[in-house]
Design a protein that fits this description.
318 residues; alpha/beta; Rossmann fold; 2 domains; 6-stranded mixed beta sheet; 4-stranded parallel beta sheet; 13 helices; 43% helix; globular
Length: 318
């Protein structure tokens, strides 16, 4: 039985914050120096989390919220890498087994890190993983399913980022988040809109996988027929599910579509200015801000993760 969709209340996010204390890092908000006359952009460096990605917030909250009985059965999730690391990290803290249905084209660094955290990997195609994400089941797996984005407690954990942004940059006017499944922008958007409904919340998607932009244009959840795999493996889904459409729509204002070239340039800029590594999905928000299509600044861009094979990163930013 799948729980019905309900709004992410600010109380849910406040409780998640208390639950995550000591597990997740309060990541810095760094101003991007773009020279005189450049836009006011701040980077929320979630690539500095213990698993180098924001998913640890949602995963740790969701696993902590499970009953003792559900945790005792072990947990499993679906992932291109970052959610799997987050759930495996949380499972290790509780001493319970974790299995990850992993997209087989995930970067080797993500697969290696999931195994290092104790996860059992079940490699599958992207299409098979997406079916499991939509149906919330995978034949042959037992244990408690922790959905990597369509899960109330997972999303509430991500909302803690929104609280930090408002505290560290109370003058913020626009917040941009990458969109994959939609959990990140739903969590952050829920926190922002609850406390500062005047702040604009925007998504960012690669042109090769932009189902939310298509869904907004056509007024409902849609499949993205021209989907292509790319180095932006941590965002850009094949479709927007009905449930995630219900979650995202009330707390987002619009989305910006960027090219792969713009994304790679944003990866390089983050490395040059902050001396940190952003994976493709992690650079989408900055790429979107640099198009000039975002609302007024200050603009906060969430650098959602930094898990990318170093050889691939070097190739992209060279």
């Amino acid at each position: 039985m799948i729980d019905p969709v309900r709004p992410i209340a600010i109380d849910d996010i406040d409780q998640a914050r208390a639950r995550l204390a000591g597990t997740v890092l309060r990541t810095p908000l760094v101003k991007l120096d773009l020279g005189e006359g450049g836009p006011d952009i701040r980077l929320k460096l979630e690539n500095l989390q213990p698993t180098n990605a924001y998913k640890i917030r949602g995963a740790a909250n969701a696993v902590a919220k499970l009953s003792d009985e559900d945790r005792a059965r072990g947990v499993w999730t679906i992932s291109a890498g970052n959610a799997g690391q987050g759930v495996a990290f949380a499972a290790r803290r509780f001493g319970i087994p974790c299995t990850v249905v992993a997209i087989e084209t995930a970067p080797q660094t993500k697969l290696d890190r999931m195994r290092a955290l104790g996860a059992t990997i079940v490699p599958v195609s992207y299409d098979r993983a997406w079916v499991a994400a939509e149906t919330h089941e995978f034949e042959g797996l037992e244990g408690t399913f922790v959905h990597p984005f369509d899960n109330h407690d997972f999303i509430a954990g991500h909302g803690t980022m929104g609280l930090e942004i408002l505290e560290d940059a109370p003058e913020v006017r626009t917040v941009i988040c990458a969109i994959g499944g939609g959990g990140l922008i739903t969590g952050v958007g829920s926190a922002i809109k609850a406390k500062r409904p005047d702040v604009t919340v925007l998504g960012a998607e690669p042109e090769t996988a932009a189902p939310y932009a298509l869904s907004l244009r056509e007024g409902g959840p849609r499949k993205f027929a021209d989907w292509e795999a790319s180095f932006v493996d941590g965002a850009g889904g094949k479709s927007v599910t009905e449930r995630m459409w219900q979650r995202m729509r009330p707390v987002t204002d619009s989305t910006i579509t960027v090219t792969l070239d713009q994304t790679a340039k944003a990866m390089r800029l983050i490395a040059e200015k902050t001396r940190t590594i952003a994976e493709g999905a992690g650079a989408l928000a900055l790429a979107a801000a640099l198009t000039g299509e975002a609302s007024e600044g200050p603009i906060v861009c969430i650098v959602s993760g930094g898990n990318i094979d170093l050889d691939k990163f070097a190739e992209l930013v060279a």
